[in-house]
Amino acid sequence: MKNIVVTGATGNIGSRVVLELAARNHGQHGNHGNVIAFVRDPLKASPLAAAGAVLRRGTLEDSASLQAGFAGADTVVLITAGATAAEQAKTAIDTACAVGVRKIVRVSSLKASVDGPTDPTRQDGRTENHLRECGLTHVILRGHCFMQNILKGIRSIRDEGKLYFGSGSGKIGMIDARDIADAAVVASIRETWDGGTFELTGPAAIDFETVAAAIASELGRDVGYVPISPEAAGEAARRFGTDAWTASVLTEYCAAYAKGWGDFTTPNLANMTGHAPRSITDFAREVLVPAIHTM
Ligand SMILES: NC(=O)c1ccc[n+]([C@@H]2O[C@H](COP(=O)([O-])OP(=O)(O)OC[C@H]3O[C@@H](n4cnc5c(N)ncnc54)[C@H](OP(=O)(O)O)[C@@H]3O)[C@@H](O)[C@H]2O)c1
């Protein structure tokens, strides 16, 4: 029996981790203790409660709420978000140490490094260093570019048959965020990967011509890739309401991908989860096309 707390529990990855852990608790895989979703908005998290998760309310900036949130936990799946992610993570790691958490599963980002080319890379580099120094058992999962990012271009795909992106012909080992959740689940309930840092990628490094072709094939209509500059990608995101930090991060990532920074894959996802990583075709068929049809 062990209690597992998931932060970022209403997000893409966190919600899937909570639902899967809750399902395992009620299924034939044995009881792993309470699944605890640390959330800002209990109403938004009501599907998690309905699935059997315990909700604890708080924010990653508020160490008092983190202390209450982490009390009695064996393991924390630590998901942070946005421009202050490193500060959020530091507060959460320090609180976890203070209240006796044994293990942290950290959702980090690809090639995390204090001198990386994007702000999340640098922030996650600082967080990883802090986590390694603090002495807690940990597993670090560095997710490559999420296929789910393509959902931000869903209107131009539907309305114009065009997919705009700023990575030129750079290849990217992009991953379906559902696979990162699957890895976080097994890393939180097994000890096999403790102490490790794992780059998690999709099955292939692909350029956006390939992404557009996969979408077109699943949608049954022409979809063409329109390369734009990294700066134009950031500016377009800003025009559509994205905050300034996220838009500048998009520009940084596009510039890095255009230079081949993301052109790699690893076998780690299959090794950890026992299933092959989902392909861009799987993502287009199971996530993107249904999203277009329900818009
Ligand atoms: N996009 C990529 O390609 C990529 C690649 C690698 C890693 N990552 C990183 O992976 C992580 C998870 O991604 P995701 O898609 O699951 O994120 P997401 O869907 O944006 O969800 C973020 C979660 O964090 C919560 N949150 C945000 N600020 C918070 C705060 N101050 N206190 C408490 N909770 C807070 C949100 O809660 P609310 O619902 O209340 O807003 C939400 O549950 C992120 O850190 C992301 O940067 C992304």
TrEMBL record:
Transmembrane segments: none
Residue span(s) of domain NAD(P)-binding: 8-185
InterPro entries referenced in this protein's UniProt entry, alphabetically: Ergot_Alk_Oxidoreductase, NAD(P)-bd_dom, NAD(P)-bd_dom_sf
PANTHER family noted in UniProt: PRESTALK A DIFFERENTIATION PROTEIN A (PTHR43162:SF1), PTHR43162
Protein name per its UniProtKB record: NAD(P)H-binding protein
